[in-house]
Amino acid sequence: MKKQDYLNWDEYFMGIALLSTERSKDPSTSVGACIVSEDNKILSVGYNGMPNGCSDDEFPWAREGNNLDTKYFYVCHAELNAILNYTGSGMKGARIYTTLFPCNECTKAIIQKGIKEIIYMSDKYAHTDEVIASKRMLEAAGVNFRLYQPKGRDIILSL
Fold it and tell me: Is 11 a catalytic residue?
């Protein structure tokens, strides 16, 4: 008889996105993303962080202050990093699992790459113009999005 308590696909891929958050050095919001093909193969992963060559010790992580002294002009979001990290030939029809609903800029890239579904864990910025614009674009482009439904399961990794 086979094991009965194995992870379903949503649990597995959201777990990869959650594990990816642990690479982020953002002190306030760590985000992870995992892009998956139509046949459940991992295409790419990403997390929010500074672009290659930009030291995360030298660039700011602040949330408030002068724009040039906050993280917002510098940090590459998890979803965009996952798209940029991909080395294959196409993402058409793929799904992206992300721990935070994507902003309008990441949404543009998601749509342009042909990703057809977003599964997200949190929508804590749903009231912002960025996320409202994201949802408008996704609906217009026929990209599905749905809230991840956690099963209340804990998995402990000993690294």
Answer: no
